[in-house]
Design a protein that fits this description.
The complex is a heterodimer of chains A (380) and B (230).
Chain A lengths: L1 H13 L1 H37 L5 E5 L7 H11 L3 E16 L2 E10 L1 H8 L1 H4 L12 E5 H7 L6 E5 L6 E9 L4 H6 E5 H8 L7 E6 L5 H12 L4 E5 H4 L1 H39 L1 H9 L4 H37 L10 H18 L1 H9 L2 H7 L1
Parallel strand pairs in A: 3-7, 4-6
Antiparallel strand pairs in A: 1-8, 1-9, 2-3, 2-5, 2-8, 4-7, 5-6
Helix pairs in contact in A: 1-13, 2-11, 2-13, 2-14, 3-9, 11-14, 11-15, 12-16, 13-14, 13-15
Chain B lengths: L2 E12 L7 E12 L3 E6 L5 H8 L7 E6 L2 E2 L5 H11 E4 L11 H11 L6 H13 L15 H13 L5 E5 L7 H18 L2 E5 L3 H5 L3 E6 L2 E7 L1
Helix pairs in contact in B: 3-4, 3-5, 4-5
The chains are: A alpha+beta (380), B alpha/beta (230).
The complex binds adenosine-5'-triphosphate (ATP) and magnesium ion.
Amino acid sequence: MKLAFQIAKRFLLASKRQTLVIILGIAVGVSVQIFIGALIGGLQDSLVDTTIGSRSQITITKTDELISDYDELLSLTESSSNNIRVITPTITTSGSLVKGENSEIIVVRGFDYNTADDIYKFSEKLTPGSELPNTTNEVVLGINLKDSLGIEIGSVVTFDSAVYESRSFTVVGFFDFAVKEINNSWTITTIDTVQGIINQGDVVSNIEIQLNEVFDAEEVTKLEIDEQISDEYTISTWISENESLLSGLQGQSTSSLMIQIFVIVSVVLGISSTLAITVLQKSKQLGILKAMGIKDGDASLIFLFEGMLLGVFGAIIGILLGIGLLYSFTTFSGTDIPITFDAGFLAMSAGIAIAASTLAALSPAIKSSKLTVMEVIRNA
Amino acid sequence: MPSILSLKKVSKTYGENTKNPTKVLFDVDLDFEESSFNSIIGQSGSGKSTLLNIIGSLDRPTSGDILFKNESLASLSKNDLAAFRNRSLGFIFQFHYLLPEFTAMENVLMPYRISKREITKEVIERADELLEIVGLGNFKNKLSTNLSGGQQQRVAIARSLINNPSIVLADEPTGNLDSDTTEKIYELLRDINRKFKTTFIIITHNRTVAEKTDRVIEIKDGKVYLDISK
Ligand SMILES: Nc1ncnc2c1ncn2[C@@H]1O[C@H](COP(=O)(O)OP(=O)(O)OP(=O)(O)O)[C@@H](O)[C@H]1O
Ligand SMILES: [Mg+2]
């Protein structure tokens, strides 16, 4: 084994240029793999982030009813899973806002900004001069309502609803969510403002949650919460509401996988054919070694080690090349396409390259084990 | 002297399963004594190399058997034969056949390393001694491709002896060397035969060389034609 390894090393060093070419071939394959993987990973992450990054990923409601003992529900839920990043209560109702002649149908949402800001990032989306609602009847409106109602910061607007009593809100700011629906209709305020409108005491309508691992929402975290809280609550996740996003992501993953498989296949074919030639080149040496009594198995180990060594160096250079590629892409392309890669992904690419190279050496290895001394002597 | 190797009715047919098989060896019976110094002569194409390759277990006979120290080789597996070659045989080929990627010293040590034993101080000393004996003490760290033909052949001789084999098989070991070098190499083989009691079986075209050996076997048309011992 040690001998086979050393012979492999010598064989590779003896034909440096050929060795270098194979290593570069593997390296290019690995770097393409890393580049594409990181790019597609980055695109996926940013897609997931823009879609569900600033909204509730798991929502707990009570069927046809408001939640009254929500403090207890909050603490029960929070302790049920360690995937929960933020948890916040909200209360929502609807009606219309009236200013002079103008009227718009809106949704009024009361938040606890200590925690809700971590989900919705309101404070980052406020327009200049705006601040978050602080006391009862202070509201912040979607930016589109500013023009449609003809108001500005400091204006007082009337809230009308068919069910509840009218009341006056003071506009303390506007936010821009870059989502038309929200900019057109959301009116955010404090929890007690909405509680005052509804007039049913200390209640909320939803518990909203964001997660550390968003893809665990349906299959892990939902089940963990479900185990802890009473059956009267309904738990819904972003996954069940976003099937099309998910199938899109899956499509991307599949195409990324396909590209990576093709890269590996071409690397394997390249190494395999080059090593097959090496077996021919080294047949004289193999003949001598066999005459001196090396076992066929050890003879084929030489080529497996060659494949492995080529894979190891190809992977190392490929990773450096891939990182360089990503670096120059992010620096010079002028786009701000996000890039996602981590040590695990690099290790996987390297591992696959090494395994593939060793595998590619299998057929040359078998060929070398079948070579007999007589063939070599006869052809000398 | 007891016999170390005997051939029992060894025949060889090349291309047995083809349209025109060629029978090259016909029921060859031979006995070789321990520590003897033998030569095989004969015309080109008479079957000398075929015979030596079969003796060296590099090729299998079509029929017949070979006994090494009274043990049949016919029943051994490929791996067992490899181990047998490694332990008991040394080869010297006409075309030197050193590993060009390794130095003279590394080539000499190769059969030892193939036997999967740890390199010890003793074996290094032995390799040194062998290289000294073949007159290459100063060349041991040279890459084998940087040695002359005669030097390469002498490395091959040192290599064939590193595992202390019972038999050294040589197929025209001086075939492409000048006559002075040829002379020296045969003297060397002869010295080694005396010093280490190694059995030698040497194919040669050189009658003067053959005449200096203990026994001359002439092969003709795949049969033993003459067998003269002194
Ligand atoms: N692999 C083979 N297939 C078919 N015929 C072969 C093969 N090897 C050798 N022969 C034939 O067998 C015969 C004996 O060959 P061999 O090499 O043993 O002769 P030799 O006595 O060593 O000759 P030389 O002195 O030229 O080396 C020759 O006629 C040769 O053509
Ligand atoms: Mg011959």
